[in-house]
């Protein structure tokens, strides 16, 4: 090696140490401390008095994107070191191509001496013909370890062992098992987020409330507890984001479930996690203690899946009926409005009525909010009276409708599945026919190619939906929200005097609004209320049940009266 003119550089060596999870399998000799001791001793023996230590702990050698490795390369480019010492070539990396470029091109170009102690490599003593082979073996080792880990993870994941880190609200079992236990401090925040959502408070508002109370965000909370998590920064923050709230609200793990294989990586060289199709997830229910009741979680998912209009009340809040009202004629959502001149007058009407050329409904289905509140509260009161005064009748009605609703849902899915299976068979036949027609010259190659693409695209969608329906029919015979859960929810509101968003979320799935009409000289508006789990029920006319005679006087001078409507 030629002499450098920079004397300081001549006596400066970079000691690079690295340890990954895989290296722990090789024993204590690979520990960071032992690597440092060994390299320091060898470097001093070879005459280097100024030592710079670069350390990447817990990072795989497959990737070259390592913080201290990059710092070492920058130091070499800045002419600050003249030699690099490593325990062996695998410390530099387990990527045959990248390590080869480093040892065969980069280091010689910068006149850098390389010493790999365990591999008996010292470029000051001449080239080592075995170095490329050792690099190749190092990559094969990484590939083999990755393959074994994938098999191991697949076995563990299919056995119900949690494959990921516990979400905010849970922590690893201190007893050493792979299970999760509730972290009560964080779980209290999670429960509150779900409770506020059930009360009709949106993610942005919840984030503002938590921030105003100086509650640490999840990553900062883990940091304050000394829990290492990927992506955690060394700053404590209370600035919650709505995206964090939404992420918490959508985690099924809070019901006590384990969801494995939600993400995957393409290869051992590419560590980026890719979201897996939901059909490839493996779900185990009721594995650990739930933080949130399953009925609450499912109700929130149902509400969040609906498309609602962004328009808000004059005070900035969202109306509690938004997303619950649908048109009885066209099935469109009803949109919320308030009178610009008099904001106290709030109402909904059919979104399909006024769409210009795309008008899909012939009536406005106009309904006042104050009328809605009185009607729905009155029906809930009648329902709670039925539950408390006529328990046996109520139980029969609820159970009967629950079974009926589940059976109707099953029949609809089975009907759709039969249609899709028939279409799938038909597409197979169409492929066969166009292939034969192409071979016989009846259709051109260009036409054959276009039809093939069309049919393949359709069949891909059909087979995906078939698999989804088959899974639902095999695993879900009925909704998870049982009749017993609904009964318990009803009894909670026996003494309700005011309608609240939580009451609506817990009890009601949707409300069908009919166009008002003249009946016996009176303007009457019918509503069909569909309750969670059981659908629409007709409350019997029993002696102790109050009547629900609601009417409202509109600004047009018309009295509108309520009439219950069974579906």
Description of the molecule:
The protein has 567 residues and is an alpha/beta fold. It contains 16 helices and 20 strands. It has helices at residues 7-10, 32-45, 67-77, 89-92, 96-109, 131-158, 184-198, 203-212, 218-224, 242-250, 294-305, 369-389, 391-440, 445-475, 483-492, 501-507, and strands at 12-19, 50-57, 83-86, 113-116, 121-122, 170-172, 180-182, 258-260, 263-264, 274-275, 282-284, 325-327, 334-338, 346-350, 367-368, 508-513, 517-519, 522-531, 551-553, 559-564. Strands 12, 16, 17, 18, 19 and 20 form a 6-stranded mixed beta sheet that branches. A 5-stranded mixed beta sheet has the order 2-1-3-4-5, sandwiched between helices. It starts with 6 loop residues before the first helix and ends with a strand.
Write the layout of secondary structure elements.
Blueprint: H1 7-10, E1 12-19, H2 32-45, E2 50-57, H3 67-77, E3 83-86, H4 89-92, H5 96-109, E4 113-116, E5 121-122, H6 131-158, E6 170-172, E7 180-182, H7 184-198, H8 203-212, H9 218-224, H10 242-250, E8 258-260, E9 263-264, E10 274-275, E11 282-284, H11 294-305, E12 325-327, E13 334-338, E14 346-350, E15 367-368, H12 369-389, H13 391-440, H14 445-475, H15 483-492, H16 501-507, E16 508-513, E17 517-519, E18 522-531, E19 551-553, E20 559-564
Parallel strand pairs: 1-2, 1-3, 3-4, 12-16, 18-20
Antiparallel strand pairs: 4-5, 6-7, 8-11, 9-10, 13-14, 14-15, 16-18, 17-18, 19-20
């Amino acid at each position: 090696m030629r002499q450098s003119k920079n004397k300081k550089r001549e006596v400066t060596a970079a000691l690079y140490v690295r340890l990954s999870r895989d290296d722990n399998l090789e024993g204590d000799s690979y520990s960071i401390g032992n690597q440092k001791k060994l390299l320091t001793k060898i470097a001093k023996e070879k005459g280097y008095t100024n030592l710079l230590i670069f350390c990447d702990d817990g990072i795989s050698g497959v990737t070259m994107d390592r913080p201290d490795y990059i710092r070492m390369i920058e130091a070499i480019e800045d002419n600050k070191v003249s030699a690099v010492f490593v325990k062996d070539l695998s410390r530099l990396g387990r990527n045959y191509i990248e390590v080869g470029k480093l040892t065969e091109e980069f280091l010689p170009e910068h006149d850098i001496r390389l010493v790999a102690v365990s591999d008996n490599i010292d470029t000051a003593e001449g080239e080592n013909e075995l170095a490329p082979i050792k690099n190749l073996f190092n990559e094969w080792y990484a590939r083999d370890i990755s393959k074994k880990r994938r098999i191991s993870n697949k076995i563990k994941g299919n056995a119900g062992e949690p494959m990921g880190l516990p979400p905010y609200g849970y922590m690893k079992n201190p007893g050493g098992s792979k299970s999760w236990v509730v972290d009560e401090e964080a779980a209290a925040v999670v429960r509150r987020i779900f409770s506020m959502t059930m009360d009709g408070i949106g993610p942005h508002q919840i984030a503002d409330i938590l921030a105003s109370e100086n509650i640490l965000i999840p990553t900062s909370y883990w940091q304050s507890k000394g829990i290492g998590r990927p992506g955690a920064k060394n700053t404590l923050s209370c600035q919650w984001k709505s995206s964090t709230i939404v992420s918490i609200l959508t985690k099924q793990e809070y019901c006590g479930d384990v969801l494995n294989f939600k993400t995957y990586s393409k290869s051992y060289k590419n560590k980026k996690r890719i979201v897996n199709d939901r059909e490839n997830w493996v779900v185990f229910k009721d594995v650990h203690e739930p933080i949130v009741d399953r009925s609450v979680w499912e109700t929130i998912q149902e509400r969040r899946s609906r498309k609602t209009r962004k328009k808000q009340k004059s005070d900035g809040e969202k109306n509690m009926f938004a997303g619950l009202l649908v048109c009885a004629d066209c099935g469109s959502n009803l949109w919320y409005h308030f009178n610009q001149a008099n904001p106290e007058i709030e109402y909904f009407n059919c979104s399909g009525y006024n769409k210009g050329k795309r008008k899909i409904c012939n009536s406005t289905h106009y309904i006042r909010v104050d009328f809605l509140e009185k009607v729905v509260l009155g029906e809930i009161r009648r329902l709670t009276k039925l539950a408390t005064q006529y328990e046996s009748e109520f139980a029969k009605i609820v159970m009967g409708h629950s079974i009926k609703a589940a059976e109707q849902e099953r029949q609809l899915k089975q009907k759709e599945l039969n249609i899709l299976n028939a279409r799938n068979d038909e597409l197979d036949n169409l492929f066969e026919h166009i292939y034969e027609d192409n071979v016989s010259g009846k259709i051109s190659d260009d036409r054959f190619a276009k039809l093939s693409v069309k049919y393949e695209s359709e069949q891909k969608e059909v087979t995906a939906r078939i698999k989804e329906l088959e899974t639902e029919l095999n695993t879900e015979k009925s909704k998870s929200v049982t009749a017993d859960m609904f009964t318990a929810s009803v009894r909670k509101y026996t003494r309700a005097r005011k309608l609240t968003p939580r009451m609506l979320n817990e009890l009601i799935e949707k409300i069908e609004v009919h166009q008002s009409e003249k009946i016996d000289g009176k303007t009457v508006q019918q509503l069909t209320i569909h309750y969670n789990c059981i659908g629409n029920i007709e409350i019997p006319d029993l002696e102790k049940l109050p009547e629900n005679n609601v009417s409202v006087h509109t600004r047009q001078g018309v009295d509108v009266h309520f009439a219950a409507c069974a579906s």
